[in-house]
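Before the break, one more example. Copy the sequence into your notebook; we will annotate it together after we see the structure.
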Amino acid sequence: MSHPSRGNGTVARRLPPLVTALAAGVIALATAITADTSAVAAASVTCTTPAVAMYHVDGQGQLRRWGLESPLSGTPGWVEQQIGSGWSGLNVISGGNGTIYTIDQAGNLRWYDDDDYADGGVSWDPASGSVIGTGWNGFTTVISGGDGVLYSVDSSGALHWYRDQAMNGSVSWAPGSGSVIGAGFGAPSVLIAGGQGVIYMVTSSGTLNWYRHLDPTGGAASWARNGVGSVIGSGWTTSARIASMGGGILVVRYQNGGASWYRDTDPLGGSASWANQGTGTAEGTGWNATQLITDISGCTAS
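Here is what the structure looks like once it is written out:
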């Protein structure tokens, strides 16, 4: 795979809110979330300005960055730019704050850094594309918790913890990397990293479960609620693409090309507390069927 192309990025485009109605089935899913908005005060959340990045690979293998200008409210308003080429056939994972990891078909784990993730330019760290690991195609799922943390699930459903200490393209893994810190995280469930140790799981029955790893930088098997998931929603589907911008911000893309914004207002506590009583905000239509990759560190809760 080639390094991200440099110097061929298109001029950033500001896109007006898309108002095409979502299909009836999508709307039904979006309003079927269980929520108790009165139980817990909303967490304080700060986000990257002027926008939080979301990446996707188009049909030509071009890497495009979309910036959501209002991540806390979900008001549609995106800025889009092509920032690379040659990205077809990869598993692309946001490491947060412009860090991107990819896994190719040979199992090589590569590190990239989008230097202009926040301001909309096209600039990559010179070490981008460096191989920092091998054998990563042996996992069924790999997600990032930000700050160099990677969680991977093996074929038995065991959850492994890793941390890229250097985050600069050199091979530097924290002691204990590869440790098993949990079990039962395998298919058919879908995992979504939420940042700050938060992991969301969509089960085959459509429930959304919340977990929080309490030692994301150290790798100890320490979990909120003793590792028992908290059910915070229903009506979700494993066929949708779901990603988090951190701080409880979730973006969902449906099979019909529509997308919606949700906000879990208690991302660190795990109660069923949602903005807008759990109803999603439509983010337009025409989103393609490739991976949904949001900057996992775009927003931070406290």
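The chain has one domain: 13-301. The CA atoms of residues 171 and 227 lie 31 Å apart. Try to locate both features in your own notes.
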